[in-house]
UniProtKB/TrEMBL annotation:
FecR N-terminal domain segment(s): 13-54
Residue ranges of domain FecR protein in the record: 111-204
UniProt source species: Acinetobacter corruptisaponis
Domain of life of the source: Bacteria
InterPro entries xrefs: FecR, FecR_N, Ferrdict_sens_TM
Residues passing through the membrane, by range: 86-106
Name the record gives this protein: FecR domain-containing protein
Keywords: Membrane, Transmembrane, Transmembrane helix
Claim: Transmembrane is one of the keywords in the record: yes
């Protein structure tokens, strides 16, 4: 468990998908080379493979011991449906096992959460409104002294209401606190590394966890902070949080950043040819139908989408 906690979730997801492909028996020589390159890129990659293989002992035997008659037709190769089903089953086994094993206790104790791809509106008892982005977890603590939201993971949009008791409205993250000063704003927990804040109306006060520095962030500004430092504020790109309307609005974003945002609303992971990562993208994309958004990107920028499992996508130039 201690080894898993040191590895970022996106690395574990990628490692699981590589192992699904490896155990499927359908990995080509080129894919094998890509797998070895990915594993050698960072120490975390190799460690993730090692830890998942330990966790899923017996999976290889399961894959190799499927009755041959269920995988062949008339002594020919696997048909496409059987291969897809097999990959889907193995992917599901990885995903389910990892989710149960890796989910922190704080997530189990959350008051509200969203599944991957889900956006949920939550009315609070003080009249405020909160919207949870995909795969987000919060705890709500309203007392006589304070209105507190603990953001365990993910992103939230908050529209605060005036409180007759004049209690402060606080959002606590793993990096510090954000106090609403009569406002509309979003807070996003980036794993444990940093917190992103965007203010769409009025202002907020940011207080890092282990610093005496307190900074006011004004309407139309965004910033990020860790437990000891607040970055310099910069202007917002959009005048509203479009994700609350299930839209991703981008202007001159690198392709990799666009894909990362889409995959916050989609299960699985992707691999992209390095020369494509910095292609500039502008447009409006659906977060409700991420598959359609991927196909739109592929059509408008001459990309080839190759699916090796329902959860593993390879993107290259067409």
């Amino acid at each position: 468990m201690s080894h898993f906690s040191k590895i970022p979730p996106h690395v574990l997801d990628a490692a699981a998908d590589w192992l699904v492909l490896l155990h499927s028996g359908e990995m080509t020589e080129i894919q094998q080379q890509q797998f070895e390159q990915w594993k050698a890129e960072k120490k975390q990659h190799a460690l993730a493979i090692q830890q998942i293989e330990k966790f899923t002992q017996g999976l290889t035997g399961l894959a190799n011991n499927f009755p041959s008659e269920s995988l062949v037709q008339s002594n020919q190769k696997f048909n496409q449906t059987t291969k897809r089903n097999m990959l889907f089953s193995l992917s599901g086994l990885f995903a389910l096992g990892l989710a149960m094993y890796l989910m922190p206790w704080a997530k189990w104790q959350s008051d509200y959460h969203t599944e991957i791809g889900e956006i949920k509106t939550i009315p609070l008892k003080d009249g405020s409104q909160l919207i949870l982005a995909s795969d987000s977890y919060i705890q709500v603590n309203f007392s006589q002294q304070i209105r507190q939201i603990k953001l365990i993971e993910g992103e939230i949009y908050i529209q605060t209401a005036k409180d007759p008791q004049n209690r402060p409205f606080m959002v606590e993250t793993q990096n510090g606190s954000v106090e609403a000063l009569g406002t509309q704003f979003t807070v996003r927990q980036e794993h444990r590394e940093q917190t992103k804040v965007k203010v769409y109306q009025h202002a907020v006060a940011i207080q890092p966890q282990v610093s005496s520095q307190r900074q006011i962030l004004q309407q139309g500004q965004r910033t990020f902070f860790d437990s000891s430092h607040i970055s310099k504020p910069i202007a917002l790109e959009n005048d509203k949080p479009y994700w609350t309307q299930q839209l991703l609005v981008v202007e001159q974003w690198p392709l990799q950043k666009v894909l990362d945002e889409l995959y916050r609303y989609k299960k699985g992971t992707y691999f992209i040819d390095p020369e494509l990562k910095d292609i500039h993208i502008s447009g409006v994309f659906s977060l409700q139908n991420t598959q359609q958004s991927l196909e739109t990107l592929a059509y408008t920028h001459q990309l080839e989408l190759s699916y090796y499992s329902p959860y593993l996508l390879k993107i290259k130039k067409r």
